[in-house]
């Protein structure tokens, strides 16, 4: 039987990464990179743990996938990320020449679209995949953060 995995399947895997970030006290954003139906990179935010503002899930996933593939370009790869990438991450995605971006929740304040950042001309993107689940996790995180302070 030839079973094709879909965007929801892979976004669920990215959400598992976001849950790991949540458990570590990181903003719960998770990412995976897929090539030919195979996950080649898994990552989540590590900005607090690494004390590094650039340690976003997308950046960690790009580095991991590039190491796996042995090159800097992510042709034929899809990034699944639970939150619309920021301007910094979109820039890295531009330079990686990733073929496809799929994200969950919109980031209307800091997302690449709100900031006017372009992806690579050959990159296609789709938002809103499991957006409610991703958004609910982010909201829960910030409610708990506010209650602790």
Q: What features would you highlight for this structure?
A:
149 residues; five-stranded mixed β-sheet; globular
Strand composition percent: 15-25%
Mean pLDDT: 95
Strand element count: 5
Which outline best applies? globular
Strand order of the largest sheet: 2-1-3-4-5
Poorly predicted parts: none
Beginning-to-end CA distance, first to last residue: 53 Å
Q: What is the H/E order?
A: HEEHHEHEEH
Helix tally?
5
Helix content: 40-55%
Largest sheet: number of strands, sense, barrel closure: 5 strands, mixed
Radius of gyration: 15 Å
- Alpha-beta content class: alpha/beta
Short description:
The chain has 149 residues and is of the alpha/beta class. The chain contains 5 helices and 5 strands; from the N terminus they run H-E-E-H-H-E-H-E-E-H. A 5-stranded mixed beta sheet has the order 2-1-3-4-5.
Structure description:
The protein has five helices and five strands, in the order αββααβαββα. Strand 3, helix 4 and strand 4 (100-105) form a beta-alpha-beta unit. It has a five-stranded mixed beta sheet with strand order 2-1-3-4-5. By secondary structure, the protein is α/β, with parallel strands linked by helices. The chain is globular, with a radius of gyration of 15 Å. It starts with 6 loop residues before the first helix and ends with a helix.
